[in-house]
UniProtKB/TrEMBL annotation:
PANTHER family: AMIDOHYDROLASE 2 FAMILY PROTEIN, NODULIN 6. Residues 175-360 form the Amidohydrolase-related domain. SUPFAM superfamilies: Metallo-dependent hydrolases. InterPro entries: Amidohydro-rel, Metal_Hydrolase. GO terms for molecular function: hydrolase activity. It comes from the Eukaryota. This is Amidohydrolase-related domain-containing protein. It comes from Agaricus bisporus var. burnettii (strain JB137-S8 / ATCC MYA-4627 / FGSC 10392).
Length: 410
């Protein structure tokens, strides 16, 4: 049963209105590209033919009336009504309405999506925020850019001397990571090795494996004019180099874990597979993204026993049902220190994605902590402190942002 707002008024106010730092987000689409991607992506990680079933999930049924309210549609609106209305409404107004009551003070934005110029730059989003957003650098994309620069001059050759290129790549990657680590506009790094070769990152890459990887990357560049890191030895080298530099400069490294699209190998997306590198890079801060769903308990365990592990619980809002969201948060709280939890929207492409994630996550935070109060395990004052840490203070400290929660008076 839903807990009335007036039962725990201090908790309700904190959960629904306290300023938030969105520690993991992505850019919005430009107006001219607002309809370039299937709208079902707002409520599903599916793609292609699988998207046709997305409107029949509990997550979508819950989102429809919430989106209808945002778009000034009647309560009886259908998914098709929502799609039709949002495809033609004033896009700037939609963006402003989506952020208006969100209380998102700032965002840390990973802008290295395969977007082909269809997204806004990071600074554009600042019009909706109280403080300027910061960048999260996606290291696999950075590595691919460096490899392209090194390999393109050799495209007309029949053979490739990989040894000096590997040395140049490692040197250039370290230099680029250090440059970003020193940039005050960069809050941290992000790895998508989970998508590429899995989270079982090895502490060693063989020279033979690295040479083969580089030759295969070069062949792809020759034949398809693209570069994609899809080889374990090379990917693991990139991750280890990142962890080394990030530890030196105390920049957190975010890892995609768990929930993703069909490009991911779910078995290798469990954060438990990171345990060895977490232990070996003890001075580097790991941020496990997306509640690691469906491996939420494994993530909570890691955050509880390693001082350098933090846990983000974004993306499951709005992609999982209400009961699923509550269950996930309960699971995270079973072991995770509340000072290790970070809030995010994982918003991307559509402003409604931010709207739904913010609305649903705040409601669930209130409900779950309210249930814990009712069980006699916390006082309302203690839950208010937890909310303020989760939404703002922990991210503020972890990423060294130096912000003060906006009080709404200036």
């Amino acid at each position: 049963m839903k807990i009335p707002a007036d039962k725990f008024p201090a908790l309700h106010k904190a959960a629904l209105t306290f300023p938030a730092i969105d520690n993991h987000a992505h850019p919005l689409l430009r107006e001219q590209n607002r309809n370039d991607f299937p709208y079902e992506g707002v409520i599903s990680e599916a793609s292609g033919k699988a998207l046709k079933d997305a409107p029949h999930t509990l997550a979508c049924f819950r989102a429809i009336p919430q989106l209808a309210k945002l778009l000034d549609l009647p309560e009886t609106a259908t998914w098709d009504d929502v799609k039709a209305a949002r495809s033609t409404c004033n896009y700037q107004d939609l963006c402003e309405k989506s952020f208006k009551d969100s209380a998102i003070q700032t965002m840390l934005i990973d802008d290295d999506l395969d977007d082909h110029g269809v997204i806004h730059d990071i600074a554009w989003h600042d019009q909706f925020l109280k403080d300027a957003s910061r960048r999260i650098v996606r290291v696999e994309v950075l590595a691919e850019q460096i490899l392209r620069e090194l390999l393109e001059p050799h495209l007309m050759t029949d053979t490739l001397n990989v040894v000096p290129i590997l040395a140049d790549f490692t040197t250039a990657l370290r230099a680029a990571l250090i440059r970003h680590a020193k940039d005050p506009n960069v809050a941290g790094f992000k790895s998508i090795v989970c998508y590429r070769t899995g989270l079982d990152v090895s502490m060693y890459s063989s020279q033979a494996g690295l040479k083969f990887s580089l030759l295969d990357v070069f062949k792809m560049l020759q034949m398809e004019n693209k570069i994609r890191l899809a080889h374990k030895d090379l990917n693991d080298l990139v991750v280890r180099t990142t962890l080394d530099i990030a530890g030196e400069f105390q920049k957190p490294v975010q890892f995609h874990t768990g929930l993703g699209d069909s490009d991911i190998n779910l078995i290798f997306s469990s954060p438990a597979r990171l345990q060895q590198v977490i232990k070996n890079y003890s001075r580097t801060i790991f941020v496990l993204l997306h509640s690691s769903y469906p491996y939420s308990r494994e993530a909570g365990y890691l955050a509880s026993v390693y001082p350098n592990v933090y846990l983000d619980f974004g993306e499951v809002f709005p992609l999982v049902s209400l009961q699923g969201q509550k269950s996930i948060l309960h699971q995270l709280l079973e072991l995770t220190p509340t000072t290790k939890l970070l809030w995010s929207t994982d918003g991307h492409y559509w402003p409604e994605n931010y709207y739904l994630a913010n609305l649903q996550s705040r409601e669930v935070i209130y409900e779950v902590l309210g249930e814990i109060i009712e069980a006699g395990n916390l006082t309302e004052a203690e839950t208010v402190t937890i909310v303020e840490n989760v939404l703002f203070h922990t991210s503020n400290t972890l990423y060294g942002l130096g912000l003060t929660p906006w009080d709404g008076t200036s």
